């Protein structure tokens, strides 16, 4: 879970980015991002919907999915394909690809930006005549904290 300071900084960055791009950062989009940012690891769409309906009784699945689509398009949220969940991007100003480290025990997600990996994959795809539309690199394992905890158990 992001700390209050981290979460507020993320929300401020998101507001600035949307304003600069001339896109609407509606209250529902803000709330969905806030819920994701305040959750350690990934949050599934229906968990978001359950939380959102406690605040907005009229919230329906399309509301959540449209907000998620917007947040992904703006680079504010990433979809964790293997978990069918969503995680806030800690550095939405980073325009390049990313990789996700996912702890299978505690759900912690860390974002990496190893641009050389993305460049190599892009070059090889191009050589093979393949156009990449979306790239997701996820590494599933165990974070150091969970690894140490497992060793002492």
Summarize the topology:
Blueprint: H1 4-21, H2 27-37, H3 45-55, H4 61-73, E1 77-80, E2 85-88, E3 99-103, E4 109-112, H5 115-127, E5 138-141, H6 144-152
Parallel strand pairs: 3-5
Antiparallel strand pairs: 1-2, 3-4
User: Could you say which structural class the secondary elements and strand pairing correspond to?
Assistant: alpha+beta
Structural domain count? 2
Distance between the termini: 24 Å
Q: Please write the string of helix (H) and strand (E) elements.
A: HHHHEEEEHEH
The proportion of residues in beta strands is 5-15%
Predict the CATH topology of the largest domain: Arc Repressor Mutant, subunit A
CATH architecture of the largest domain: Orthogonal Bundle
Largest sheet geometry: 3 strands, mixed
CATH class of the largest domain: Mainly Alpha
Provide a count of the helices. Answer: 6
Radius of gyration over C-alpha positions, nearest whole angstrom:
17 Å
Q: Largest sheet, order of strands side by side?
A: 4-3-5
- Write out the CATH superfamily name of the largest domain: Winged helix-like DNA-binding domain superfamily/Winged helix DNA-binding domain
Shape: globular
In total, the number of strands is 5
Family: Belongs to the Fur family.
Binding site for Zn(2+): 103, 106, 143, 146
Keywords: Cytoplasm, DNA-binding, Iron, Metal-binding, Repressor, Transcription, Transcription regulation, Zinc
Subcellular location: Cytoplasm
